[in-house]
Amino acid sequence: MKKCILLCLVASVMMLYACQTQSTRQEASTEPAVKIWTKEQAKAWVDEHGWLRGANFNPSTAINQLETWQAESFDPETIDRELGWAEEIGLNCMRVYLHHVAWEVDKEGFKNRMKQYLDIADSHGIKTIFVFFDDCWNPTYKAGKQPDPKPGVHNSGWVRDPGELIFLDENLMPLLEEYVKDVLTTFKDDKRIAIWDLYNEPGNNNLKNSSMPLLRNVFRWGWEVRPSQPLSAGVWNLSLSDLNKFQVENSDIITYHNYKGPEEHQAAIDTLKLIGRPLVCTEYMARRNNSLFQNIMPILKQENIGAINWGLVDGKSNTKYAWSEPIPDGSEPPLWFHEIFRKDGTPYKQEEVDLIKSLTGAQ
């Protein structure tokens, strides 16, 4: 069955690659003149940045993107401390989620906090992948104080962006366009930003192709600004064929998620390499699933594929607990699902940190 799925995926990607030029020609009359990077531009980007390795990061004091970015809960001291731990083990890139509501409430303050974050990250030699939209976890949200974590529940307070509101508010799409273009225009030439990840896991939560209009729009808005950094949206689910097709055809570099063991991860790499663009794995490492630093990170380094695991420090997001396996009393899980460090900066597993340092060349 797995072999059949892989063969289907290979055939699908090869078909996409073969029709890419024709598809681009057909869309030329309606899309912005400056669109996807050439493969030469993509190669120049990877030559400049080298091997990216890092984590998906929100400070341990934030339960979600709003708590990370709102003025009353923005926590530069924790950000500085925790990125310092990342620097010590040789990580050089963090993937960080934004949220349009934090911008909507306080546009200039939001961008100033982004600048402050970038200053802190840069002081630790860390570049940033910013994520705009997200179809994962809770469908509703509001500005202001965010909920407390539910004990033992993975990402109990994480919120989608824009979530259900996209189907309820006809005025939201123009607001989202203003948001994306404002942020991209402000930071379009900031060399501290490695990638703009336009949409995390489009189609998740059974949204499927209903996420396509926003996915198409966010790429179009990105092309109209055309920042100096690459635009991408990661493929993550083989069953979402229409979304996958659009994502791989229109991303400057190919990003993807894989929480499987080494054999299946290598098969995914071999397939995605057929597209002929640089690869960055923007989510991996789930210990219960045999996606480990020990068996995946060496593969990614050997292949020169960006290696961005989920989670840096145990905190309010509760992602040390596994998906759909809550521990209601909030006690320590027998095996952490994600995260590298405890709240005090000590490693969850010293042997993992030792391996990471050996791969990154950290002293």
UniProtKB/TrEMBL annotation:
<feature type="signal peptide">
    <location>
        <begin position="1"/>
        <end position="18"/>
    </location>
</feature>
<dbReference type="InterPro" id="IPR017853">
    <property type="entry name" value="GH"/>
</dbReference>
<keyword id="KW-0732">Signal</keyword>
<protein>
    <recommendedName>
        <fullName>1,4-beta-xylanase</fullName>
    </recommendedName>
</protein>
